[in-house]
Design goal:
The structure is a single chain. Helix 2 crosses helix 3 and helix 9 runs antiparallel to helix 10. By secondary structure, the chain is an alpha+beta fold. The protein starts with a helix and ends with a helix. A hairpin with a 5-residue loop joins strand 1 and strand 2.
Length: 264
């Protein structure tokens, strides 16, 4: 048994267990025998390139990690990884620009897999007033800005609920991706102080369907619901990890305040 077989087998087993799938279920889904899958996981057999990709697809392995699985199995990576500034990404950059601009007067931003800020529209600026300049220096991290004591945290009205939401979302990402960078970020954010949050004086319908971000600004208390947009069927590692976070007003007062900010 060579080390390459054992390494790819160990990684396949780890992803299967992370997805809480039995060998039989995974074997049926990928049209191989449970015996063959068992041999792969124990290093007694070596998977073909096609089987590695089929297993990775069924296990919802991130594209970045699919390349690593291929290398572990002795194959070349199949997914490219280029800088967002690469000319090949011109169409993607234009799409991001259009999405961010179309969201105005409501805030929107683009982030990478570690929540590093890549780009934002003009409506983000009023929300960042008072944030320590050091937190805004590149590479700025959106979640760090949100929960850091020198960031938005002192102005988030429902800080306890928002903090719990952010940490739970990040925890799910770590579980889904096994990304060590995200795990370190989660540990850092969880260590930030969590003072008693001031409870909102008005409960909106948004509170009944999702956790809103309620933040004090010079325009008053603004309340947002957030959505995430990703590129469909990306074949590049970088593009697969870009997400657009859009903030929509959770009440009419927030919508009106944002329109005034834009016109002013």
């Amino acid at each position: 048994m060579d080390n390459a077989r054992l390494e790819i087998g160990t990684e396949i087993r780890a992803w299967r267990q992370r997805r809480r799938m039995s060998q039989l279920d995974l074997a049926l889904d990928t049209e191989v025998s449970a015996r063959h899958l068992s041999f792969l996981e124990t290093g007694r057999s070596r998977p073909s390139r096609d089987l590695v990709l089929r297993l990775a697809e069924r296990l919802q392995v991130p594209i970045r990690e699919r390349n690593r699985l291929l290398v572990s199995a002795g194959f070349a990576p199949v997914f490219s990884e280029r800088s967002l500034s690469d000319e090949a990404f011109a169409a993607a950059r234009r799409a991001i620009d259009r999405l961010l601009t179309a969201q105005e007067p409501y805030p929107a931003l683009a982030v990478d897999r570690h929540w590093t800020l890549l780009q934002a529209n003009a409506a983000i600026a009023p929300l960042l007033a008072g944030v320590a300049p050091s937190l805004l220096e590149a590479p700025a991290n959106v979640l760090r800005i949100s929960l850091h004591p020198d960031g938005l945290a002192p102005r988030i009205v429902n800080l306890a609920d928002w903090r719990a939401h952010v940490l739970e979302r990040l925890h799910r990402q770590v579980a889904a991706t096994a990304d060590s960078g995200l795990a370190e970020l989660l540990e850092e954010l969880a260590a930030y102080p969590s003072p008693r949050a001031r409870q909102p004086t008005v409960v909106t319908m948004a509170d009944e369907i999702a956790v809103p971000l309620m933040i004090e600004t010079e325009a008053g208390t603004l309340s947002f619901l957030t959505t995430t947009t990703i590129f469909g069927t990306p074949i590049d590692v970088t593009l697969s990890e870009i997400a657009i976070e859009s903030f929509f007003p959770a009440d009419p007062g927030t919508a009106e305040a944002l329109r005034r900010l834009q016109s002013g």
